Amino acid sequence: MADYDFYLNGYHGGSIPEGEWEQYRARAVDQLEKYRRLYTVTAPRPDSEAMALCAMAEALYGFDLLANGEGGPVQSAAIGSVSVSYGSTAAQAVDLTPKGQARELYRCASRYLDIYRGCG
Hints:
Elements: H1 4-9, H2 18-38, E1 40-42, H3 48-67, E2 77-79, E3 82-84, H4 98-112, E4 114-116
Antiparallel strand pairs: 1-4, 2-3
Helix pairs in contact: 2-3, 3-4
């Protein structure tokens, strides 16, 4: 399974602090178990499952940051008398509804795993 070392060195992640990794990994594992109950899930490569768990954990972490007002694109920056804005309202339009989050978690998992309805 994906541990923090794999997250850093195999997946090449870095968004999730080590102290918070386990809670997000556990939530990703729960989501993958749900997919296995509903769908046929196969791993095309030996590290596919670990990669999917890392992707879902990062998405969950990002959702929590956005929900707490701590994440998202920079809207403006100022250095002395020079001020510049970055991003747009379209860039901030992340769907934080349960349905939107479920869609993103499925997208993250299916990037690394083959997930489909039917017999295997």
